[in-house]
Write a structure and sequence with these properties.
Distance between the termini: 47 Å
Radius of gyration: 20 Å
Order of helices and strands: EEHHEHEHHHHH
Number of helices: 8
């Protein structure tokens, strides 16, 4: 069966358009979608099942991060057909909304001449500035605090933005700052847990 996807009501997002009321946003991970598909036709069967469930639901917004990962991903039953073409065909049927993300470089390299580029509208979004990135990380920090049982300071958030902007030049804000903050939170959480285990072992 297809891999599980993250589901949540789109109406919980701030300033959501009326069109998105009562819709569900489903995020699909391409690597998970194809993971373990060793038998002929297995990827196609997963896609058929996935699109069938979406068509029955009638209230799905599908999100795919790094949509360029679909390009060149061949199917088992046809060497000339790739997964991106199957997605393009289903998009044309207009029974769901597709949101996806990519970088300008990846769009030009992989998507600009693909069937997908004919089925979706290209919207260019400028990289978020430093101030808005800090605000975005403030929201993310609350989730990390709950997940790892730590406290994230404003200085840590600001440092994540500044350092990622300086050293992660091949990525964009706020994503790269979120990535840096998440990795730091995981590392600190592991250190705290290691110290706790040492104390417990001594006792």
């Amino acid at each position: 069966r297809p891999p599980r996807s993250t589901l949540f009501p789109y109406t919980t997002l701030f300033r959501s358009p009326k069109y998105f009321k009562d819709k569900r946003l489903i995020q699909i991970s391409v690597p998970k979608l194809i993971a373990g598909a060793n038998k002929p036709g297995e990827i196609e069967n997963r896609l058929i099942q996935m699109f069938g469930e979406i068509q029955i639901s009638k209230n799905i917004i599908l999100f795919i991060d790094r949509i360029e990962d679909l390009i060149g991903l061949g199917t088992e039953t046809s060497e000339s057909l790739d997964v991106s073409t199957l997605f393009a065909e289903e998009i044309e049927k207009k029974y769901f909304v597709l949101l996806s993300s990519t970088t300008p470089e990846s769009y030009e390299k992989y998507l600009s001449k693909s069937a997908l580029s004919q089925s979706v509208a290209k919207i260019e979004i400028e990289e978020m500035n430093k101030l808005n990135s800090i605000r975005a990380l403030g929201i993310k920090a609350m989730l990390l605090e709950k997940k790892f049982n730590i406290f994230v300071t404003y200085q840590a958030i600001e440092s994540a933005v500044n350092l990622s902007q300086k050293f992660m030049t091949n990525k964009y804000l706020p994503g790269k700052a979120i990535e840096a903050l998440n990795l730091t939170a995981e590392k600190i959480s592991r250190k705290i847990q290691t110290k706790r285990n040492k104390i417990l072992s001594k006792d």
